[in-house]
Write a structure and sequence with these properties.
By secondary structure, the chain is of the alpha+beta class. Helix content is 24%, strand content 40%. It has helices spanning 13-25, 45-50; strands at 3-9, 31-37, 55-61, 64-73. The longest helix has 13 residues, at 13-25. The chain starts with a strand and ends in a 5-residue tail after the last strand. The model has no long low-confidence stretch (mean pLDDT 90).
Length: 78
């Protein structure tokens, strides 16, 4: 059974590069990755905040947020 992972990003160059690297790195046998572009799907910003995401790009696995580099604060996407 694969573990759920959600990758939140805003479409900036840092985010797009992180998404590409993530796709190359995570084993699809182990992780069911959902990509959420918060710039296009603003309705999910509150969800990302509840998951502990402070900035994007960020990956949430098993309820634990992992911030990757620093693209934008969530408040800038609202």
């Amino acid at each position: 059974m694969s573990e759920k992972a959600i990758f939140y990003h805003a479409g900036c160059p840092v985010c797009v590069d992180a998404e590409r690297r993530l796709a190359e790195s995570l084993d699809p046998q182990k992780f069911d990755v959902e990509i959420v572009h918060l710039g296009q799907d603003k309705g999910r910003i509150a969800e990302a905040e509840r998951a502990g995401v402070k900035s994007v790009p960020a990956l949430v696995i098993a309820g634990q947020p992992y911030h990757i580099n620093f693209g934008a604060e969530l408040s800038a996407l609202k």
